[in-house]
Amino acid sequence: xxxxxxxxxxxxxxxxxxxxxxxxxxxxxxxxxxxxxxxxxxxxxxxxxxxxxxxxxxxxxxxxxxxxxxxxxxxxxxxxxxxxxxxxxxxxxxxxxxxxxxxxxxxxxxxxxxxxxxxxxxxxxxxxxxxxxxxxxxxxxxxxxxxxxxxxxxxxxxxxxxxxxxxxxxxxxxxxxxxxxxxxxxxxxxxxxxxxxxxxxxxxxxxxxxxxxxxxxxxxxxxxxxxxxxxxxxxxxxxxxxxxxxxxxxxxxxxxxxxxxxxxxxxxxxxxxxxxx
Length: 277
Fold this sequence. Notes:
This protein is α+β, with helices and mostly antiparallel strands. The protein has a domain at 45-229: Distorted Sandwich (Deoxyuridine 5'-Triphosphate Nucleotidohydrolase, Chain A), CATH 2.70.40. 19% of the residues lie in helices and 24% in strands. It has six helices and 14 strands. The two termini are 33 Å apart. The relative contact order is 0.17.
């Protein structure tokens, strides 16, 4: 059965179940609601702007449509952009979607502490101020420099994710190949996986790595969101069998130009459209 198919449960009744309780009823209603949503939209996943302020000016973009930071560097110094010659990294750079910063965020870090303010100027920011988190949660994950304190922040996003297939989750990671290199140098961006069956939050969690003063500007790429299906994968390891040994020793396509891309790469598609009311 295709992983795109829904697995529906029949609503329990006194006639077809020896045990009938409230929890079964709630589960049945939940599944029914999920099915009704799926009938209203052809989208399997949607990014919803809860603020109603940025969906037009700073929209979600497909990763493949966002310029790569390496390409900008090559153009700046009039060098040949050779990054696509590594198909593994290039394929990764095009996966999923890019979330850009929805506001300016001003950071300052030194021995005395770390401060962060959303927005700027005389007008109050319409977005929530970053929330400082407990540093002990991430101790030992990376090394802070210049004797600054370890201060992670939860930068609350107006973007909420809704899925209409209960098997979809999302890998939320730094936009390594799209973000400003200075942003990546100054901050450790914490990756994570979120199950969006009944949860919607998608936030930026980061911590300054060294003494600095830096502004994340509205529109700067900050996160890459890669949806995936939750399907059990059974793994094994050990020495090769005869067939595997043959493939390891000789690939008849190896001598061909762009052999991996033309002969082995599997096309991956991520579509995107604006939601119409």
